[in-house]
Fold these 2 entries.
Entry 1:
Amino acid sequence: MPKRFRLTRRLPIAMTEDGYRRLRRFAQEAGLDEGEALSFLFENFDSVTNHENLSHRLRLFNSDLEARKR
């Protein structure tokens, strides 16, 4: 029997404009709303990410983060 899909958490988040556009595009392509798309991504995080690529991208993002905040 499939798990019942309930959105039980609501949280205010801050996203970059590029990140939000990409989330909206992914959600639209998948036929989901943004909350469902985020739930899918985080529930399946290990299978939808490549650990080596994730580590590299995270280092790049963090190295650029302070400059982007200004």
Entry 2:
Amino acid sequence: MEYGILGLLVLILDIYAIYKIITSGASTGAKVLWVLLILILPLLGFIAWLVAGPGDKTVNP
């Protein structure tokens, strides 16, 4: 039962990440690569996207 709940949680998080990727202002190539990474490696892809993907990483002086 626990694995089913964890799997459902990962699925929900992956769908959220894919939605955020598709609606982002990133280039089409970057969007495709992020979505493929999340689809191929659901948990690791989500964690990588969470660390490196969302938001604007520029520093404002």
